[in-house]
Amino acid sequence: MNDLMIQCRGLSKSYRKGATVVTPLEALDLDVPKGEFLALMGPSGSGKTTLLNLLSGIDSPTQGSLVIAGEEVASLSRRQLTAWRARHIGYIFQLYHLVPVLTAFENVELPLLLSDLSKKERHDRVSAALELVGLGDRIHHTPTELSGGQEQRVAIARAIVADPPLLVADEPTGDLDRAAATRILDLLRGLTRDHGKTIVMVTHDAKAAAAADRTLHLEKGQLLENACDVS
Ligand SMILES: Nc1ncnc2c1ncn2[C@@H]1O[C@H](COP(=O)(O)OP(=O)(O)OP(=O)(O)O)[C@@H](O)[C@H]1O
Ligand SMILES: [Mg+2]
Asked: Where is the ABC transporter domain positioned along the sequence (predicted)?
């Protein structure tokens, strides 16, 4: 058995913008062992979100190989990719992306509505996920009735409710104060330590990156270790 969750080889992504071609990722290699909490830093526009979108099968590479949990993702059809994503990926966004008219419980239940779980099984899974993120008592509140930190915890519960092995997080603490951010980072750490999740987290915040096992810097299409360290 391969103990890598992610293996990228020569991964490139280009976008055409009118007459010009932008290539945020160029022949990138990346290995992420199962259970690692990896932080990804880099200037604005360096391709961090692009990389998360490739890792999660939302977007497809222009070139190269991307093997996740032993599967060559680039070779899947669109339909296969959708099913694959539902089983393997939890996506956590900076601005939560919760449905405003639904309660915390209903937001977390959403990814399970496509599964063949019974209502009772869905209820148990959603309750467990909300309990895990420390929101067991606020399940009937809508997003506007929650703080930013609580909204992000609902979003994390939604990302883990289907029990995917890989979580990708795009600046999950970017909009939070330090105390709420620390709580989210502790939660993410617990998901790797106690639940074996692999996490790739984009952040601009060196303190957030310090919570991860390893930090890589994306610059000019390449991943570098310790690129911005001045110490
Ligand atoms: N769908 C798209 N079509 C065209 N160009 C795109 C698309 N998505 C991203 N880009 C371009 O690719 C580059 C990388 O964008 P990306 O969003 O990955 O950067 P980022 O590192 O996440 O930046 P930020 O820190 O500001 O979120 C940018 O030049 C951007 O304009
Ligand atoms: Mg981004």
From this structure: 6-230
Ligand 1 probe mutation, 13, 14, 15, most atoms within 8 A of CB:
15
Which ligand 1 atom sits nearest the alpha carbon of residue 204? 25
Q: Which ligand is nearest to the CA of 58?
A: 1
Domains of the chain, by residue range, sit at 36-61+89-225
pLDDT digits (tens, 9 = 90+) for 32-83: 999 999 999 999 999 999 999 999 999 999 999 999 999 999 889 989 999 9
Protein residues with C-beta less than 5 angstroms from the ion ligand 2:
49
Q: Which CATH number fits domain 36-61+89-225: 3.40.50.300, 1.10.1060.10, 3.65.10.10, 3.40.50.720?
A: 3.40.50.300
